[in-house]
Design a protein that fits this description.
The complex is a heterotrimer of chains A (about 220), B (about 50) and C (about 230).
Chain A: H1 2-17, H2 20-39, H3 46-73, H4 77-83, H5 88-118, H6 125-150, H7 156-182, H8 190-215
Helix pairs in contact in A: 1-5, 2-3, 2-5, 3-4, 3-5, 3-6, 3-7, 5-6, 5-8, 6-7, 6-8, 7-8
Chain B: H1 4-45
Chain C: H1 2-32, H2 46-73, H3 76-108, H4 116-137, H5 141-170, H6 174-180, H7 182-185, H8 189-232
Helix pairs in contact in C: 1-8, 2-3, 2-5, 2-8, 3-4, 3-5, 3-8, 4-5
Classes of the chains: A mainly alpha (about 220), B mainly alpha (about 50), C mainly alpha (about 230).
């Protein structure tokens, strides 16, 4: 497990040393949020705000998850990672954590922006942060597994969203519904939190177990 | 309701055609399997033809 | 070798089982079963729609099982089974999505509603569409098989989560759910019998298609293998 921390540190150092990648993720998220304004009803509701937040998160997040593996592909770094005396499951955890950190920073910018753009305020900031974190966790697990697959195929940029979006549907429904409730919408958030936790657990374990089959030569 | 037999007939035609098509697919798949096996055997008998 | 012989016997037998079963299902659906009182003739679509759905689900279940076995044992035969079953499952899933609206239009008055079952079937369709696209885009030979196996497993373990979230999403509409429920609508015992026979016929067609597709995939793999050997020598 000692390899996890090294890989996370290495990845984050690369990201922050040349922040063009990070910045492009933020700008994409912002753009989606902006475009959604023109598509949304004139009077924003907690539901449309939650929808916009998660749609922009998913688009920007897909780009972000792709990056960690695209960077490894250059200069055959991925092969180096495979030869390194590190458990594949640990590599998965490290990649997932790296994506989680990047996307948490993304959320920390996107959530206040959504709040300002849509004129909505979380009823319970702590609860809202929890929903964001749980949604982020499940997304990072799934996106990391699928990003590792997509870099090995011929059409990697095209295939990643095609892989992620269908499987992500349960998480997206739960995250949007829970966020809408916490932004002042009607309903009950508890049941959706349970769906989120179930998704997180299932796909973290699945990624942890299946990753070695993706990496194997 | 008096046109009901026509509905039945239409569906029957669809199924029969499908059945015949599947049968022919099955036969052709078998044939290519046999041909591949024959080529392999011929190559093993006479490796110089590779 | 035993599995090979078993497959040969079954594949010789299947056409002669599937053919009569198809005829029997047709006869029951159009000649024997009574017309449903509230829905009229349109209700007979159910005898194609519901067996298609069951067959599609079976197909996707086989994908998951074969994918697990492939990752575990590495036998390319399991990979071919997963691939063939995904393709055929998609065919039947498409049939479900096409026959459903044709029935829903006269009965519900709308081609499509976001009813939990419809939504779930559509999501399943997209998952296995991406599965087939992944295989179509390709990469290294063994590599793409492993990737597809991972997706086949991930897609299947996602199904319970989809079912739960989609039900909660629109709330459960008891009225709609009841009228959708095949068992709820089938009061006459001959209706249930017809549904079972139709399901049996679809199952046999699925098995037959699977064996034919497996044969062609095996030939294709054999050709690739032969080419590789010839290039090596």
């Amino acid at each position: 497990m000692n390899g996890v921390w090294q890989i996370v540190r290495k990845d984050l150092r690369i990201e922050f040393r040349s922040p063009a990648g990070l910045v492009s993720i933020f700008v994409l998220g912002l753009l989606v949020l902006l475009i959604f304004q023109f598509a949304a009803p004139e009077k924003p509701t907690p539901e449309s705000a939650a929808g916009a937040l998660w749609i922009s998160f998913v688009f920007a997040g897909t780009l972000g998850a792709q990056r960690t593996f695209l960077l490894e592909r250059d200069n055959l770094c991925l092969d180096g990672l495979k030869i390194a005396p590190i458990d594949p499951a640990a590599i998965f955890l490290a990649k997932m954590l790296g994506t989680l950190v990047t996307l948490t920073i993304l959320q920390a910018v996107m959530a206040p922006l959504t709040s300002v753009f849509f004129g909505v305020v979380p009823v319970s900031p702590l609860g809202f942060a929890l929903v964001c974190l749980l949604g982020n966790l499940g997304f990072a697990a799934l996106a990391t597994l699928f990003a590792s697959i997509s870099v090995g195929t011929r059409a990697r940029e095209v295939i990643l969203p095609l892989l992620i979006f269908p499987v992500l549907v349960p998480l997206l429904i739960a995250a949007v519904k829970a966020s809408a409730v916490l932004l002042g919408g009607a309903g009950e958030a508890g049941i959706w939190l349970r769906v989120l936790v179930a998704f997180d657990v299932v796909f973290t374990v699945a990624g942890w177990l299946l990753f070695e089959h993706v990496l194997r030569e | 309701m008096d046109r009901f037999p026509y509905l039945f007939a239409a569906y029957t035609v669809v199924w029969v055609v499908l059945f015949v098509y599947l049968l022919s697919l099955d036969r052709r798949a078998r044939r290519s399997e046999r041909e591949l096996a024959a080529i392999r055997k011929a190559l093993e008998r006479d490796p110089s033809r590779r | 070798m035993l599995a090979k012989r078993l497959e040969n016997v079954v594949s010789l037998l299947l056409p002669w089982l599937a053919g009569p079963a198809m005829v029997a299902a047709l006869y029951l659906i159009f000649m024997v079963v009574p017309t449903e009182r509230d829905q009229g003739v349109v209700q007979r679509i159910f005898y194609f729609h519901v067996p298609s759905a069951w067959t599609a689900f079976l197909g996707f279940f086989v994908v998951c099982g074969a994918s697990l076995l492939y990752l575990w044992r590495g036998n390319p035969g399991f990979d071919r089974i997963a691939r063939a079953s995904a393709e055929i499952g998609m065919v039947f899933c498409t049939l479900v999505l096409l026959t459903g609206p044709i029935w829903a239009r006269p009965i519900w008055g709308a081609w499509w509603t976001w009813d939990p079952r419809l939504t779930m079937t559509l999501i399943l369709w997209t998952i296995y569409a991406s599965y087939l696209l992944l295989r179509a885009f390709g990469g290294g030979e063994d590599q793409i098989s492993r990737y597809a196996a991972v997706l086949g497993i991930v897609g299947a373990i996602d199904i319970p989560l989809i079912v739960v979230s989609v039900r909660l999403w629109r709330g459960i509409h008891p009225a709609v759910m009841m009228s959708r429920d095949p068992q709820g609508g089938l009061r006459d015992p001959s209706m249930r019998f017809t549904l079972l026979v139709a399901a049996g016929a679809f199952l046999l067609v699925y098995a037959w298609l699977l064996l034919v597709r497996l044969r062609t995939l095996r030939v294709a793999d054999g050709v690739v293998e032969l080419e590789r050997e010839m290039r090596a020598s």
